[in-house]
Structures are given as structure tokens and as C-alpha cells.
């Protein structure tokens, strides 16, 4: 026995050492009615399904329909990811979610000289309509809810290829159901800013909002990405404030395009984190619902109650997971998933316990799916809408997070709004400062992490259940497939469609680029060719990495 027995008595009488929440909000040892005396039920809470939606966006919540149970998927070739999607379907997911690789986020193809080694490493390598069709081979895309976990300029190319896939199958795009993240602004502080200039990214995002609002009524036109900012180190009130400020920027741009608020707002959504501080996360999501409802009704004058609703999907917090003692992560994930459900999430992705080590294996993915299924079918957690509503502690914490979030949003307005704050570097500075603060807290032991800075054991020699490995030569094979497509297609047709796209892209801010991109995709133009054409037409470099030269138009 390596532990000093004399410590046992000390541990027996140990007291809680962290009276503040993860975000640093002070808490009392006991809460009572005095903490919520100022709350007015109808004004501040309301029943589920009623303004201000603090208690949930639907009256019957999960008795009406369970949350969508999906797991983000993407690696290797489209065929590899297709097989994993089919595996997920066999395991019982109720929706699908796909993420692209780093090349896709940059807007380059797998045959790019600097992209071969990255092809298919952290997401699926998707370069053309042919890849999109292979990705969904055997999957009825008009029957399944699809989520594209992509945010940069590549969003508009993916949407073009997805619509083209549907049309080539004889499916009306109006019958497609799902979501595209479509939050180009957040790319500016996630490492891909140089590939997605702010103004061009916003223009492409609004093109998607406009096109889908008019032609794809079942499709959510974008998720404001709160999740990645929280992963960067922001606290709960900052996550709400930065995320809602992002959403406001898109609302304002869509209004400038000439869309009516109730024409597009009912199909906007949010992509949120659920971190490890259980009650804080529940309160955070309740506060976000209330705050967004007030913004949409009072600031933007929306009349349709659906426009007031903060509909959100949750991704459990990858940043809360650690490679040390990785099975501990399964416990963290389960608690975070429970918080998401008690907060009324519309969709949920559970991380896999091996996320800090690599992409999920089939074993770890299955456990993530089973975590959701046990939560849905065994625990009774979804039986009652907003079961923590009315708790003096939860209501007090909801209030406090809303107040703190409003203060941060006021500061963002003083910076000139979210777009100006991103361009000036203020947002990046805030994210960096938050990340440094969190790291110091872990290193100093101020934040105790089981298995990391406390209760440590000897380093494990292997990951339980094994680890995902990419096969040797993957990048070269994916690059060769792109070269073969480019060699065998009708080159004149490709040039004609890219020339039309170039002309349309020169037409100004209000010319929607999705229709010509759909036709270019059908001609087998690749992702990098379509996006490079748009870049050149709008005064940007054809290749964000400055290596590949543009074709003549």
C-alpha cells in the first residue's frame, strides 16, 4: 500500500474546497425563496413552450419527441465514413453528423501539395460531388436528419454538393431535413481565419440562409457555434454572450440582404457545450433560452414565436476530457449528457472516452451511443419538462449567468459588435486569456482533475479498447482519387461552369452563389476549384496557402 495510512482520517473529514462554480461564480451553502423573490413566473420563466422559453421550447418536451441522438463522424475516405455511418445506424442513432478534415476546413483538395498528409486525418476527405454521393451510398437522405459539422467557406460547397446529390437521386431539396453549422465568423479564432476572410465568409453564410429559407424549409440554416469558444477556455457566461453575439451578427446580415426576420429566424439554431459543472451548465442553457427570446422579440421585433426559440444541440465538452486514465472520461461524458437533457437539448452528441487520444474506435463510439440510450430509456431523465425548474439554486444561478452574459454582450457592443470585435483581434485576445487562465488553474491544482493533478496512477501502457490508427498511404490514395477525377471528367464543361460561377461571384453581395455552385458540382468541379473561383472573383488569393495557381477564366 503506497498511501500513508495517517492520511485516511484527514480525508475522512475533508471539506469541499471549491465553493465557486467552474466559471468562478460564488455559491452559498444553502438557497431559499429569498434568492428568487424578484422573479415573476410569467415574465421570467413561463411554462415550457411559452415565452420566454426559460423552461424549454416545447410544451411536452421529450414526451413529444426525444432529443436527436447523433454522433459526429468523419475519417479517411467517403467510403470509410459511409461504413461508420451505417454502423451508427445499426447501433441505434436517430440522426447522423459528418465532419470534414483539415483540408476541407482550409478549402483545399486532397491532392494539394500541402494537404496530402492531412487528407482524412481528422474528418472525412470530401473533394467533389462524387465523394458526396459515395459518402451517402445506401443512406436515404430524404428520411434521415443530417448535420454537417462544418463552419468555414467550405459550407457553401458542401451544401451545393448535398443538394446536387439529392437532385441526382430525384429528391426535392425541400424534403431534406437537417442542419449545417454555417458559422464562418467563428473560424477567425479557430485556426482557419486565413482560409475564410470575414466578409466573404459572411456573404457565403447569408447565401446559405437565403437559399435554404426559400427552398429547404426543413433545413436549419446555421448553428451559432458556442461550443468551440467554450473549448477555447471561455466560461459559461462568456459562452452565452459570445455565442448570442455571433447569432446577432448573422441576423443583422440576413436583414441587410432583404430577408424578413420571421422568414429565416425560425430555422436558426445553436451549437452548445455542456461542461463538467453540472448545475452551472443547466442554468447556462436556461439563461440562454430566456435571453435569446427577449433579444428576438424586443430588439428585432420578431412576431413568430418560433423565431424567439433558442433551439440547441449539445456536444459534451471535449476539453473536459484527458488522456490520463481515459475511462474516467466516460463518467464525465455521462454527467455532461445528463445536464444537457435536464436543460432541454434538442440534439446531443456524446464524446467518446478516447477523444483526447484520437478519433473514436467502434468500441468507444458504441459506448457513447449507449450512454445516450441509457439516458433516454432507463433513467427517466426526460420524463418531465424542466425538472430542475423551481430549484432556488438553479433559478438563482440562471439569473446570475444571464446577468453576467449581458455584461459581456454590452462590452462586445462597445467594441462595435461581434464582427468588429473579431476583426480588431479583441475576441481572440479574450479567448487566449481565458485559455491561459484555465491552464494555470489546472497546473496549480486550483481546479482538481481526477487522474491528472490528483488521484494519479502509473501511466497506462495502452488505451483501453485500443486506439484509432489511420492506414499507411491514406493521403496518397485520396490524392490519387482526386487526380483521377480531374483527369477523366469533361474539362470543357467544368471550365464553363466555373466561368459562370466566377461571373456570378463578381455580381456583388446580394447575388446568391449556391445555384451556380450546384451546377458546377454536377460538372465534377472540386471543392477547391469552386471555392478558389469565388476567392479570385472577390479579390482573394485562389489558394489560401499560396501554392496552387488559378486556372484561366
The proportion of residues forming helix, as a percent range, comes to 40-55%
The strand order across the widest sheet is 1-10-9-8-7
* Topology-level CATH name: TIM Barrel
Strand content: 5-15%
Index terms:
single chain; 553 residues; alpha/beta; TIM Barrel; five-stranded parallel sheet; 10 strands; 46% helix
How is this structure best described in words?
The chain is an alpha/beta fold. It has one domain: Methylmalonyl-CoA mutase (TIM Barrel), CATH 3.20.20.240. It is built from 21 helices and ten strands. The strands form two sheets. It has a five-stranded parallel β-sheet with strand order 1-10-9-8-7. Helix 9 crosses helix 15. The longest helix is centred in the last third of the chain and has 23 residues. The chain starts with 6 loop residues before the first helix and ends in a 16-residue tail after the last helix.
Topology:
Blueprint: H1 7-12, H2 41-45, E1 68-69, E2 72-73, H3 78-91, E3 96-98, H4 102-106, H5 129-135, E4 145-148, H6 154-168, E5 177-180, H7 198-215, E6 219-220, E7 222-225, H8 227-231, H9 236-257, H10 261-264, E8 268-274, H11 278-299, H12 305-308, E9 312-316, H13 327-342, E10 347-349, H14 362-377, H15 392-414, H16 418-423, H17 426-444, H18 474-488, H19 491-505, H20 514-522, H21 527-537
Parallel strand pairs: 1-10, 2-3, 3-4, 4-5, 5-6, 7-8, 8-9, 9-10
Helix pairs in contact: 3-5, 3-14, 6-20, 7-9, 9-11, 9-15, 11-13, 11-15, 13-14, 19-20, 19-21
Produce a short descriptive summary:
The protein has 553 residues and is of the alpha/beta class. Helices cover 46% and strands 7% of the residues. It has a 5-stranded parallel β-sheet. It has a 5-stranded parallel β-sheet with strand order 2-3-4-5-6, with helices on one face.
Amino acid at each position: 500500500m503506497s498511501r500513508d495510512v495517517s492520511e485516511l482520517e484527514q480525508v475522512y473529514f475533508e471539506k469541499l474546497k471549491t465553493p465557486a462554480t467552474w466559471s468562478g461564480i460564488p455559491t452559498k451553502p444553502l438557497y431559499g425563496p429569498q434568492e428568487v423573490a424578484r422573479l415573476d413566473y410569467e415574465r421570467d420563466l413561463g411554462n415550457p413552450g411559452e415565452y420566454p422559453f426559460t423552461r424549454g421550447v416545447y410544451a411536452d418536451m421529450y414526451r413529444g419527441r426525444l432529443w436527436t441522438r447523433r454522433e459526429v463522424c468523419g475519417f479517411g475516405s467517403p467510403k470509410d465514413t459511409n461504413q461508420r455511418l451505417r454502423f451508427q445506424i445499426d447501433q441505434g442513432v436517430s440522426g447522423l453528423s459528418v465532419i470534414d478534415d483539415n483540408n476541407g476546413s482550409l478549402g483545399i483538395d486532397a491532392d494539394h501539395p500541402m494537404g496530402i498528409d492531412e487528407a482524412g486525418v481528422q474528418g472525412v476527405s470530401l473533394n467533389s460531388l462524387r465523394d458526396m454521393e459515395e459518402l451517402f451510398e445506401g443512406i436515404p437522405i430524404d428520411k434521415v436528419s443530417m448535420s454537417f459539422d462544418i463552419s468555414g467557406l467550405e459550407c457553401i460547397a458542401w451544401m451545393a454538393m448535398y443538394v446536387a446529390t439529392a437532385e441526382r437521386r430525384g429528391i426535392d431539396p425541400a424534403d431534406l431535413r437537417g442542419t449545417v453549422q454555417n458559422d464562418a465568423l467563428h473560424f477567425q479564432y479557430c485556426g482557419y481565419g486565413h482560409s475564410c476572410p470575414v466578409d466573404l465568409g459572411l456573404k457565403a453564410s447569408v447565401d446559405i440562409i437565403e437559399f435554404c429559407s426559400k427552398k429547404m424549409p426543413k433545413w436549419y440554416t446555421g448553428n451559432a457555434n458556442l461550443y468551440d469558444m467554450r473549448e477555447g477556455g471561455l466560461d459559461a457566461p462568456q459562452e452565452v454572450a459570445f455565442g448570442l453575439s455571433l447569432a446577432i451578427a448573422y441576423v443583422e446580415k440576413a436583414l441587410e440582404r432583404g430577408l424578413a426576420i420571421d422568414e429565416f429566424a425560425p430555422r436558426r439554431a445553436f451549437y452548445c457545450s455542456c461542461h463538467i459543472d453540472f448545475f452551472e451548465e443547466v442554468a447556462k442553457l436556461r439563461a440562454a433560452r430566456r435571453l435569446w427570446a427577449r433579444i428576438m422579440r424586443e430588439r428585432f421585433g420578431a412576431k413568430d414565436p418560433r423565431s424567439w426559440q433558442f433551439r440547441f444541440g449539445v456536444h459534451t465538452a471535449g476539453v473536459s476530457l484527458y488522456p490520463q486514465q481515459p475511462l474516467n472520461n466516460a463518467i464525465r461524458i455521462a454527467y455532461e449528457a445528463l445536464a444537457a437533457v435536464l436543460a432541454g437539448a434538442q440534439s446531443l452528441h456524446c464524446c467518446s472516452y478516447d477523444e483526447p487520444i484520437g478519433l473514436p474506435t467502434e468500441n468507444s463510439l458504441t459506448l457513447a451511443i449507449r450512454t445516450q440510450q441509457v439516458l433516454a430509456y432507463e433513467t427517466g431523465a426526460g420524463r418531465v419538462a424542466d425538472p430542475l425548474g423551481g430549484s432556488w439554486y438553479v433559478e438563482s444561478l440562471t439569473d446570475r449567468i444571464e446577468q453576467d452574459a449581458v455584461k459581456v454582450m454590452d462590452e462586445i457592443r462597445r467594441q462595435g459588435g461581434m464582427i468588429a470585435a473579431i476583426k480588431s483581434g479583441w475576441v481572440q485576445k479574450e479567448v487566449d486569456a481565458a485559455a491561459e487562465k484555465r491552464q494555470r488553474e489546472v497546473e496549480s491544482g486550483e481546479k482538481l482533475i481526477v487522474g491528472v493533478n490528483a488521484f494519479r496512477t502509473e501511466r497506462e501502457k495502452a488505451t483501453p479498447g485500443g486506439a484509432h490508427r489511420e492506414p499507411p498511404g491514406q493521403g496518397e490514395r485520396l490524392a490519387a482519387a482526386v487526380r483521377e477525377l480531374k483527369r477523366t471528367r469533361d474539362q470543357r464543361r467544368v471550365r464553363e461552369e466555373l466561368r459562370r460561377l466566377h461571373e456570378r461571384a463578381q455580381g456583388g453581395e446580394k447575388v446568391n452563389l449556391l445555384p451556380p455552385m450546384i451546377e458546377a458540382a454536377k460538372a465534377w468541379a472540386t471543392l477547391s476549384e469552386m471555392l478558389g473561383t469565388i476567392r479570385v472573383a472577390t479579390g482573394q488569393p485562389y489558394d489560401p496557402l499560396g501554392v496552387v495557381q488559378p486556372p484561366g477564366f
